[in-house]
Structure prediction request, 353 residues.
Amino acid sequence: MSIPLSIKWDGKQLIILDQQKLPHEIVYIKLDTLKDVYEAIITLKVRGAPAIGITAAYGLAMEAQSYKTNSMIDFLEILKKDAIYLGESRPTAVNLVWALNRLLRVASQVDSVTVAKQLLMEEAIVIHLADEESCRNIGEFALSLLVDKTKVMTICNAGSIATAKYGTALAPFHLGKERGKEFEVFACETRPVFQGARLTVWELQQSGVDVTLITDSMAAHTIGAKGIEAIIVGADRIAKNGDTANKIGTLNLAILATVYGIPFYVAAPSSTFDLSINNGEEIPIEERKAEEITHINGNAIAPIDTKVFNPAFDVTPSKYITAIITEKGIIYPDYVKNISAQLVDTIEKGEGL
Ligand code: MRU
Prediction:
């Protein structure tokens, strides 16, 4: 039993777990070019906000090694163009532009192309390693909140394979397993592309955590029927006031948690906060292609040319969130006050590239 990893850097090559093929095929693929990385992100071969940021950082740093110029001005111009290209791959997860901005900043602080190339690679590695550490800390804080709870529901995959390791929402389950605390996790399948069924169920099975799959529409019934004690989810972008974008269906769970009187926790590293926006209305919501809804595994389940609305994320107003768990601690309401108190000195804003 072991916790699966989705991103591997061996000092020269970027290797990712092809999450499109899970759970039936475990295939690692090499990403060589910026275009490979862009394609891997938009096709969800790599997905989950922190994993997208880490992969993009490696992609940009690798691509920069091939720039032919010795002029720092030209170097930064090409770097910025490539960062913008990658940054447009998925709009909601702020970790993507956060990571790319970190690389741009590092490169802009030196006046030698050779040094910049070296620092870009180093920064990508720092982002990768720091995310594992963050997730471990999130897991510790989440475990402290779940200490007297066993039955917990989640949606999508905010797990090890969505991050460097451990995950955010799934971190307490992996850490709990290592320490002999047995959770009973209920995973919503997560329509339209089944990150819950394909990824969370697989990942938790890999580390020996008890997991039960339900369809998204079974959540309300299951909370009552199985005595769910808490819900924990990840995040793609958290505004200054705590409003949180996460996989479509998260809002339903937050409302259910409020009605049933159980805690609703959001687990996310500080790189997922966007302090440049005041509330969730400013979060861009990715809309994906109709086929994700009209087809399953290439088979049509709806009439040809059916009109479709396919938002990949929704925004949960912070009033439904019991607490936000970061690597630095647990944030409770008042979110406007407490988010900036915990994070304002330590993270960069998620402004555009
Ligand atoms: O479309 P996806 O699979 O990238 O969506 C992922 C999620 O919504 C996750 O919950 C979020 O990115 C947090 S991952 C630690």
Observations:
- The mean pLDDT is 96.
- The CA atoms of residues 32 and 289 lie 26 Å apart.
- The chain is about 40% helix and 15% strand.
- Residues 47-50, 93, 156, 158, 162-163, 167-168, 195, 234-236, 246-247, 312 surround MRU (CB under 6 Å).
